[in-house]
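# nightly structure sweep
# worker-07 picked up a monomer target from the shared queue
# config: single-sequence mode, recycle default, output format = structure tokens
# input follows
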Amino acid sequence: MTATAFEYGPNHACAEGDYLLAPPNPAERLDTSIAPRDRRRLELQAALTAAGIPPRPEDREAIDSLSALSGSINTTIQRWLHHTL
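# output follows
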């Protein structure tokens, strides 16, 4: 069984010399937003991956084109992909 950050704390050195990272501090997050098209692209890639269809580099043009469609169309595509699980 391997040790976790919860067992030894966030700065404990592992046997291999690696250090576990401390959890992110929400107060230090950048105050930026993702454009709707970029959010749809990321959500579509995640839905494809979850459905067992990892996007390939040559799929980028199709994913970009689908992400340019309206949010309702993108939601429908993601719903279809979720039903394949």
